């Protein structure tokens, strides 16, 4: 895999101690990858309380992707071209497409529609 992106579902799975997402991260780190976490996914997951601790530790070993004007415009176009898709998923898909990353997600079907057949989707 070129890189690895974690969406909100993958972060929630990590927070809950899900073995599959831990295995995915282990392989990524063994390959020398620095996983990407979109800031927009963090907004869905973080609550500002003690339950954030596990994800907060993970953030130290990841890159955070911000939503800038360029990403927002591309996500808006992708969302418009993909009926039924959401803004957050479209933002995540744009970043994954740009980096050619694999995506760890709890929503592989919706993300497949946004990413197409050429991307690796790792269901958690």
Termini Cα gap: 17 Å
Name the assembly state.
Answer: single chain
Number of strands: 5
CA-based shape: globular
Instruction: Give the helix tally.
Output: 7
- Structural class, by secondary structure, is alpha/beta
Strand content: 5-15%
- What level of helicity do the residues show? 40-55%
What is the element string, with H for helices and E for strands? EHHEHHEHHEHE
Spatially, the strands of the biggest sheet line up as: 1-4-5
Radius of gyration: 14 Å
- Overall residue-averaged pLDDT value: 95
Explained architecture:
With 124 residues, the chain is of the alpha/beta class. The chain is 55% helix and 13% strand. It has seven helices and five strands, in the order E-H-H-E-H-H-E-H-H-E-H-E. The strands form two sheets. A three-stranded parallel sheet has the order 1-4-5, sandwiched between helices. Strands 2-3 form a two-stranded parallel ribbon. Helix 1 (8-15) crosses helix 2, helix 1 (8-15) crosses helix 3 (39-45) and helix 5 (69-81) packs across helix 6 (87-99). The longest helix has 13 residues, at 69-81. The chain is globular.
